[in-house]
Amino acid sequence: MSYRSSRVLAIAARASAARAVLPACTSRLQTASLSTIYDRRTPFEDINRHRSDAEQRIAQVPIVEVAGSIAVCDGGGGALGHPVEYIQLDTRKQNTPQTCKYCGIRYMMKVGYHGGH
Q: 54-109 adopts what CATH topology?
């Protein structure tokens, strides 16, 4: 047997072995389902839910009091900030904090300030 024919046989043997292994792997993947991974008592909404304490942390940040009717929030500025947002503080509901839609920091007009119209 020549070198070339033995090499062709070796390549053919490797190819047929790879085809035999592939169905075995896929059959094992197809048998796994949610019922085998999670308990049936786990609610569907709790499966792979991202749990974050961001809302509790931002609630601990004190309300920023501003001596003006407009607050300017840039999220700390620089590369870690967000676009500048101008927040109107003199709304119909007086003395209620207004929240920045990007970072969640709350701003409120100082007590006794009536605006500068």
A: HSP40/DNAj peptide-binding domain (2.60.260)
